[in-house]
Structures are given as structure tokens and as C-alpha cells.
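Dear Dr. L.,

I hope this message finds you well. Following up on our conversation about the binding site, I have prepared a predicted three-dimensional model of the protein together with L-tyrosinamide. For your records, I am including the exact sequence and ligand specification that went into the calculation, followed by the C-alpha cells. Please feel free to forward this to your student if that is useful.
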Amino acid sequence: MATTPWRLADSDDDSDVGVKTATRPRTKRPPMYKVLLLNDDYTPMEFVVLVLERFFGMNHAQAFELMLTVHQKGLAVVGVFSHEIAETKVALVMDFAQRHQHPLQCTMEKE
Ligand code: TYC
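The resulting structure of the complex is given below.
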């Protein structure tokens, strides 16, 4: 008696045949933004130190050092954040400076 070569779980009508997609899944990291503090001749040093402590979580020594860097070099990166966080930080600093009538400028740029 001849034996039949049965194949398991495949009716062989090719309904199980697919096409492999040529793309590979990409998980792109969101772009990050530098927040910059700019020097000016009028904003008091203590105010800048306060800004760095209050909005950028620095201790007094870190804040004083970075304030001096901005004072000497003209500007410095004070942090790198997602777009939304950077935007919020800039808005908070600008509002705080304006309310105290200081010309302090804070901006952001793509990293
Ligand atoms: N240049 C200012 C002064 O001499 C101090 C200062 C530092 C201002 C940093 C702004 O982002 C700044 N009073």
C-alpha cells in the first residue's frame, strides 16, 4: 500500500503566502532643544542666579558659575529639553524677567 505524504496544517492553496514589507520599523527619537540665556548690561547678576535656581533646578554654586559664563561669553546653554519643555522654560523665564522689568533674554534652538 502506497503512503500519502500529508502536510500538517496547510491546505496549500497559498492563502498563507504574504509579502514581506521592505521597511524596517523606525523609532525616531524626538528632536531636542537647547535653551540659551543671553547676556545684557542691565539685568542684575543675582536675578540671573535666581532664574537658574528657580527654573533650571541648579544649586547656588552651579547657578552662579553659569551666570558668570553668560556674563563673560555672551550666552550659554542652560539646558536641553523636549520642544514642549523648552518652550515652557523660555516662556517662564521671559515672563519672570518682564514682570521684574529686566531685559534678560532667553531663547531656544534645535540641538
Ligand atoms: N551682565 C549682567 C551684569 O553685569 C549680568 C548678566 C549675566 C545679565 C547673565 C544677563 O544672562 C545674563 N549685571
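In brief: DSSP finds three helices and three strands in the chain.

With kind regards,
A. P.
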